[in-house]
């Protein structure tokens, strides 16, 4: 039986952690994905005190909704492949803090975006730096029994599970796996999402669920804020692929609606839309 969760940035921003957890449960979600984005406020979570951590754990246990995954998107600001030695080391230190936080919170997977560099030029050096720094991160994660999961991105550097598998050829570790975003892998014309899921199935530890618009010769596609059902993702077919493969992991709905006036309505619609398609595909979802 699989579990359906939602990323924190989908939930109303003004809610406290207790309120977010209760709200998620009311909407039928089993877990929340913790956000460590580029904002100073959320990066500061990496320095939470034990009292802060215990408070979140207490709220989690009392609500019945866990914090299963972490999205470490702050690495866009501190890229693992940076040519700047200061940023290169800062990225590794950030990952170390994230791993320790995950260990204390009982988070299973830390999702790392598949970017060698985000705001600056990509080069042969940034690719090598990414692999080198990622090896350090994975070694530290292995010592702490925390999974590092690379997400397939809106970027050609790693836009498929196959490319994650190629990175794994350089970093041989069971603690480095794939966190495919079925919206992202569906948006690239050179990627067949069904084949990509099948070929990379043994590496999948969680799945992001969102809609996207495909990249074409004339457009750069759209990877965020595409309402469910209005994009090009063939959800039912891909869910049936995962059902056939025997996938029993987590599905995480991903949106960026936390500051939208109709945030609550978006969350409800997204849950119902995805749950219906998962059910049609024969995937049983844990009832909370």
What would you say this structure looks like, in words?
The chain has 288 residues and is α/β, with parallel strands linked by helices. It is built from ten helices and eight strands. It is globular and about 45 Å long. The two termini are 12 Å apart.
Please tag this protein with its features.
288 residues, alpha/beta, TIM Barrel, eight-stranded parallel beta sheet, 10 helices, globular
In percent, how much strand structure appears in the residues? 5-15%
The CATH architecture of one domain comes to: Alpha-Beta Barrel
CATH superfamily of one domain: Divalent-metal-dependent TIM barrel enzymes
Find the structural class using helix and strand composition: alpha/beta
Please describe the biggest sheet, giving its number of strands, its sense, and whether it closes into a barrel: 8 strands, parallel
How much helicity do the residues have? Answer: 40-55%
Report the top-level CATH class of one domain: Alpha Beta
If you average the pLDDT, what whole number results?
Answer: 97
Shape estimate = globular
Radius of gyration, Cα only, in angstroms? 18 Å
- Strand element count: 8
Please provide the ordered H/E string of secondary-structure elements.
EHEHHEHEHEHEHHEHEH
Low-confidence stretches: none
Number of DSSP helices?
Answer: 10
- Strand order in space, largest sheet: 6-5-4-3-2-1-8-7
């Amino acid at each position: 039986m699989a579990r359906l969760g939602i990323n924190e940035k989908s939930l109303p921003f003004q809610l406290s952690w207790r309120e977010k957890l209760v709200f998620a449960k009311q909407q039928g979600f089993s877990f929340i994905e913790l956000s460590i984005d580029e904002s100073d406020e959320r990066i500061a979570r990496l320095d939470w005190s034990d009292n802060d951590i215990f408070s979140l754990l207490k709220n989690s246990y009392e609500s019945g909704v866990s914090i299963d995954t972490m999205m470490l998107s702050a690495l866009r600001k501190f890229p693992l492949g940076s040519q700047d030695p200061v940023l290169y080391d800062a990225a590794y230190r950030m990952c170390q803090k994230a791993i320790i936080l995950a260990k204390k919170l009982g988070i299973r997977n830390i999702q790392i975006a598949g970017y060698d560099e985000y705001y600056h030029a990509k080069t042969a050096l940034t690719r090598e730096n990414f692999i080198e720094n990622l090896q350090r991160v994975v070694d530290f994660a292995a010592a702490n029994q925390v999974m590092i999961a690379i997400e397939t991105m809106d970027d050609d550097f790693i836009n498929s599970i196959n490319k994650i598998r190629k990175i794994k050829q350089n970093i041989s570790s069971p603690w480095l796996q794939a966190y495919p975003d079925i919206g992202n892998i569906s948006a690239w014309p050179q990627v067949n999402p069904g084949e990509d899921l099948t070929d990379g199935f043994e590496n999948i530890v969680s799945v992001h669920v969102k809609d996207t618009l495909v990249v074409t010769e004339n457009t750069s596609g759209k990877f965020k804020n595409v309402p469910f059902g209005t994009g090009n993702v063939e959800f039912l077919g891909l869910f049936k692929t995962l059902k056939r493969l025997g996938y029993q992991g987590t599905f995480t709905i991903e949106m960026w609606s936390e500051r939208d006036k109709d945030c609550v309505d978006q969350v409800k619609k997204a849950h119902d839309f995805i749950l219906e398609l998962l059910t049609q595909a024969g995937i049983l979802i844990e009832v909370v």
